Structures are given as structure tokens and as C-alpha cells.
Amino acid sequence: MDRPAPPVEPAPPAVPAPAVDPVHLPVRLAPGSGAGADRCVVVLHGFTSGPDSVRAWAEGIAAGGSHVSVPLLPGHGTRWQDLAATGADEIRGAVREAVDRELTRHRHVVVAGISMGGALALDAAAHRPVSAAIVVNPALRFASPLAPLAPALAPFVPSVAPIANDIADPDARELAYPRTPVAGVAAVGRIQRAARRALPRITAPVTVFRSARDAVVPAASHRTLLRGLRRAPVDVVPLPRSRHVATLDYDLPLLIERSRAAVEAATRA
């Protein structure tokens, strides 16, 4: 006599992916004129933030005659717990995929970024045939003496106070996570180490924007950058009225103007 088949248990409901905050959706911009049809600038946002923090910069570059792509980096734009579960290699890989995608579409690709995005831009410039790199206060070292301890602290201290809104302009606001995941800080440390190692490989021109005051990235990061760029032409542009998040600060017009000039110089051939 055949035994009845055991009842089939229903599969557990799928956990929906966390919704991306609409202000941080990826951005694609067409050039403001036909002059930039064969070039694209990939703009990378910083840690715990998103495309909104670099949108005005990206729009200014696009208005000067370039296609612009602003990807949302993995772990960002949703909740800080998602960033805590995101590894350095996943973030670095997403940047390289974004650059590779534009390299198939355009003759010239420029990578640009702020803070962690600046470190990622430099990392990409060392491993992809980009025409130039433009970085704003790139984070190659931590200001906090506790940050290097993040890998050991993360299991016991899941998050700490936010690091956003280091801005001189009192009317500006950076939309970022309300907490900083300590595991995410550990991932940034790995991104920094990879970027530092890669600096001597970069041969494309690098434009470095440096704010007069910066509570997030120390002067040691800037010194590390200049020492490491042994083969690349380097242009350092001071931002005298801005703090760390210069893409939302008083010197934004200068940042846009000089970024446009750097893109034009690197892609006119």
C-alpha cells in the first residue's frame, strides 16, 4: 500500500529588497551641447551618502558638454545596515563595471569622485584606460585614530554617529545615513589600502581639489596621494571656502569650472 506523500510546506515569503531613497537613484545626464558626444564622466559619491550629494557637480560637468553617469554604490541609498553587509570588493567591482560600461560607449572616460568616491576613482584609474581622474578630498587615510580598529570593533559596536555634513555653508545639507556602520568603515579601510597601492600605476592626469578645512580626511591623506602619484601629471586646486563635502559647499562654482577644464584638456585629442 502506497504511503501518502508528505505535505509540502510552503516556501517562506521572499524578503523584498530595501527600497532605494528616490533622491539617491542613479543619474545619467546628456551633454549640454553636442561637443561631448564621445566622452563620459563617471562621478562617484562618498561613504554613507549617495548621488544627491554630487548631483549639482555632475549637472555642472554635463552642462559643459559631457555625458555624465552617477551610479549608486552598493550598500548605499537604503539603510545603514545594508552598508554594514557590503564588502570592499563589491564596491570596487561595481565601480569598475560602471567604468567598463562607459568605455564601450565612449572614446574618452573620466573618473571623478569625492572622499571614498575619490579613492575609488583613483583605484579605477590605476586599472582602467581612463583619460583622466578628478578627485575631491579623496579619502586615502582616516582622520579618526579609532577607524583602523573597525574590523575588530564591528562585532561589538555595530554603528557610531554619522560623519555627514562637514560643510561650511549653513544652508547646505548632505543626505546620508543617520548612523555610520563600523563594518562599513572597515570596508573603506580596505578600499583605501587598495587605492594607495595602486597610485604608482596611474598615468592619466589627476586633478585634486582640496578644501581648506576638512574634519573627515586628514592632511596625511593628501600627502600620501602626492607621494604615490609618481607617473601621473597632477594639478592641485585649493577650495578656500569649503569643508569636506565641497560638492555642496561655497566653492561649487569653482569646482565645476575647473572640472570642466580638466575634462576638456584630457579629451580634446
Summary keywords:
single chain, 269 residues, alpha/beta, Rossmann fold, two-stranded antiparallel sheet, 8 helices, 33% helix, Hydrolase_4, hydrolase, carboxylesterase activity
Overview of the molecule:
It is a single chain. With 269 residues, this protein is of the alpha/beta class. The protein has one domain (24-267): Alpha/Beta hydrolase fold, catalytic domain (Rossmann fold, 3-Layer(aba) Sandwich), CATH 3.40.50. 33% of the residues lie in helices and 15% in strands. It has helices at residues 55-63, 80-84, 88-103, 116-127, 150-153, 182-198, 219-228, 252-267, and strands at residues 27-29, 39-44, 67-70, 108-114, 132-136, 159-160, 180-181, 206-211, 234-239. The strands form 2 sheets. The protein has a 7-stranded mixed sheet with strand order 1-3-2-4-5-8-9, with helices on both faces. Helix 3 (88-103) packs across helix 4 and helix 4 packs parallel to helix 6 (182-198). The model has no long low-confidence stretch (mean pLDDT 93). Substrate binds at residues 47, 116. The active site is at residues 115, 214, 244.
